[in-house]
Write a structure and sequence with these properties.
alpha+beta, five-stranded mixed β-sheet, 5 helices, about 50% helix
């Protein structure tokens, strides 16, 4: 069974690489013919991201999985997400605001947290009317990373758990320090009167 899972994971990895090749070919066509295929490139990037999250979920669910936790500058992490998402959201008429109040470094798995926040911002942008806010705050127990939008909120609470949410919950729990574990909360009580995605890390 494990051999079969490893084979499937290898296939997913190869498919992701092919998507990156397709994106490069599209970018070359844009430059050669003066085209604007930004939305096509974004769709490819989103698909590649979904495959990356599937691979991450597989890695984390395997026995003995370990996070790559290192001290990270939270403001840099938030700005990286903004850089990846702002252009696409702007084309949909959505503004992305960053409100990071965490000055110090914080120990976390940067790649996986960045990917999770990118996914949360993408989802918020699908339902927002005009605004999405990514914020970071220190709390008594750690830090809180929050994505909020001004859309209609979740149609149901708790929402159905797809790969992204299941991975996010598992990732939060694997961040453990001083006997405390991270957590994920979803709600319709965001500051913008829409959905709230809140990740707490110790």
């Amino acid at each position: 069974m494990q051999h079969l899972l490893d084979t499937l994971a290898s296939g997913i990895h190869d498919a992701k690489n092919q998507l990156f090749i397709a994106e490069s070919l599209i970018a070359a066509s844009e430059a050669k013919h003066g085209l604007d295929l930004g939305e096509a490139r974004y769709a490819i990037e989103a698909a590649a991201g979904r495959l990356s999250r599937t691979l991450s979920a597989y890695r984390l669910m395997r026995r003995g999985a370990q996070l790559a936790i290192v001290p990270c500058i939270v403001d840099d992490l938030c700005r990286e997400v903004a850089l990846a998402q702002k252009q696409h959201l702007a084309q949909a008429g959505i503004t992305l605001e960053i409100d990071c109040q965490v000055i110090d470094e914080w120990p976390l798995d940067r790649d996986l947290i960045t990917d999770m926040l990118n996914n949360a911002v993408q989802n918020a942008g699908r339902f927002a009317r005009s605004r999405v806010v990514l914020s970071a705050r220190t709390t008594a127990d750690g830090i809180c990373l929050r994505v909020e939008d001004d859309g209609p909120g979740f149609a149901e609470l708790p929402p159905r758990r797809g790969t992204g949410l299941l991975l996010a919950e598992r990732l939060a729990e694997l961040h453990e320090r001083n006997g405390r574990k991270g957590s994920l909360q979803l709600g319709n009580d965001g500051a913008l009167a829409g959905a709230r995605f809140e990740l707490s890390l110790p």
